[in-house]
Design a protein that fits this description.
The protein is of the alpha/beta class. Helices cover 52% and strands 17% of the residues. The chain has helices spanning 2-27, 47-60, 78-89, 108-114, 142-158, 163-171, 178-183, 194-200, 215-224, 226-245, 249-265, 271-292, 296-312, 325-359, and strands at 35-42, 64-72, 95-99, 104-106, 118-121, 126-128, 175-177, 189-190, 207-211, 369-372, 382-386, 389-394, 404-411, 414-419. It has a 6-stranded parallel β-sheet with strand order 8-5-3-2-1-9. It has a 5-stranded mixed beta barrel with strand order 10-11-12-14-13. A 3-stranded mixed β-sheet has the order 4-6-7. Helix 1 (2-27) runs antiparallel to helix 12 (271-292) and helix 2 (47-60) packs antiparallel against helix 9. The protein is rod-shaped and about 120 Å long. The two termini are 50 Å apart. Residues 1-5, 22-30 and 315-327 have low confidence and may be disordered.
Length: 423
């Protein structure tokens, strides 16, 4: 019976999690027709940024008149840069990259900016310094340098930009101001602000929606930070070492979660794979609560499921925007409450099972009073009635049938008794 209830609770947890996702999907605003989407990219170009931009393009390409990417970055990772350049160059919707006043498009930002259908810069902005380097700042040189040079030239050529200037950005870390970029045909024109750009493009009559990185994107970006990824890897290694000497369910689970997140941060595993692993690990953790019953595993499982749901959903820009904050809080609260109820119920099941085990423990018979149901002689077995059951009994004294006896010790299923003197 308890296993059936446990199965029901686990199934309910999974169904509620899935229903939350489906309810979020049904509440999604798929956008208005003829909308200008302004996507803000400030900071390092990493997997979180590429994931965010990919979701925005996929979500709103059917409604967009144009995508405007406001860019301010000192660089980023090659894989994320490649993904963003591919997204921009293959987008069915026109893409404008705007480098606002005081902003930079260095390194990875230069590749992204050059890939745009239209590149617009503001006075005080700069583009260039695109030489590839390893983490830590060491130059790559040789084969990698040549490959990146060829790539940036091909991007500039495809967009009708100055290929010589683009090449020098990689080989000699050339930097260009907005005026110089326009002069040398790197950018298409210059404006003083985003509003001026919108007027220049004749977009004033269209609805404008601003999109900024959401919680999912920020979480992935945080994990991709080399320092954080390194800490997670070290935490996983430390916990695994501890587990070898002092195994615990919770330690193993935390070690597994830290390791899988570190692999995400190192770009070895993608977010979707990590999400599935975390979801399975979360459900398994809640199931393990059946063995412990103290609530920690159920809480940890709920947290893992929340992270998994956050990483699983990648199509729409929905729940993380401000108008869905209450929905997010409500969903997390519901999962937490469910996990708490499951933990309490599993604890009760454990208590009941422990009581049942104690009822089967015959050592509890020591000291109990019974009645001899047959004569017992030294060295010969007899029968006594103790705790409503008949037991084989021995005694070093003669005990007549019907006499009261006390259990003094137990060996296997044999009771050793002594007579109670009538006083």
């Amino acid at each position: 019976m308890s296993r059936r209830y446990l199965s029901i609770i686990t199934t309910l947890a999974i169904l509620i999690s899935l229903s939350l996702i489906l309810s979020y999907i049904s509440l999604v605003s798929y956008g208005f027709k003829d909308t200008v989407y302004v996507i803000r990219i400030y900071g390092d170009i990493d997997a979180g940024v590429s994931d965010f931009v990919s979701r925005m393009f996929n979500s709103y390409r059917h409604n967009a008149i144009v995508f405007i990417i406001t860019l301010n970055t000192n660089g980023g990772y090659l894989t994320a840069t490649e993904e963003l350049v591919d997204l921009i160059m293959n987008s069915p919707v026109r893409v404008i990259v705007f480098i606002p006043p005081g902003a930079r498009a260095f390194s990875a930002g230069a590749y992204i900016a050059l890939s745009a259908d239209t590149l617009v810069m503001s006075p005080g902005s700069v583009i260039g310094s695109a030489e590839p380097k390893y983490i830590g700042g060491l130059p790559t040189g040789g084969k990698v340098l040549n490959a990146m040079t060829g790539w940036i030239i091909s991007i500039a050529e495809a967009r009708g930009r100055n290929t010589t200037a683009a090449e020098l950005m990689v080989r000699e870390n050339l930097d260009l101001t907005a005026y110089e970029a326009y002069k040398y045909k790197i950018c298409d024109y210059t404006v003083n602000s985003l509003d001026e750009l919108i007027r220049r493009e004749n977009l004033e009559g269209y609805r404008i929606e601003y999109l900024t990185p959401d919680v999912r994107a920020k979480f992935i970006s945080l994990i991709c930070n080399p320092f954080i990824a390194g800490l997670l890897m070290e935490l996983a290694a430390l916990l695994i070492l501890v587990e070898l000497f002092h195994p615990t369910y919770l330690g193993s689970i935390v070690a597994g979660a830290a390791l899988i997140l570190a692999l995400l941060g190192l770009d070895i595993l993608k977010a979707s794979i990590v999400a599935i692993v975390l979801l399975i690990l979360g459900v398994a953790t809640i199931l393990l609560e059946f063995k412990t019953g103290h609530g920690a595993l159920a809480t940890a499982g709920a947290v893992l499921i929340i992270f998994a749901i956050m990483l699983l959903y990648r199509r729409e820009y929905f729940i993380w925007s401000i108008e869905y904050t209450s929905l997010l809080i409500g969903g997390i609260a519901l999962i937490a409450v469910l996990a708490g109820i499951a933990a309490i119920y599993l604890h009760k099941i454990k208590v009941v099972l422990m009581k049942k085990e104690s009822l089967l423990d015959i050592s509890r018979l020591v000291g109990m009073i019974g009645v001899a149901k047959s004569k017992i002689e030294p060295g010969k077995p007899g029968v006594v009635l103790v705790a409503s059951d008949l037991w084989t009994a021995y005694s070093d004294r003669v005990i007549e049938e019907g006499a009261k006896v006390r259990v003094v010790k137990i060996e296997g299923l044999k009771l050793y008794v002594e007579p109670i003197e009538e006083g």
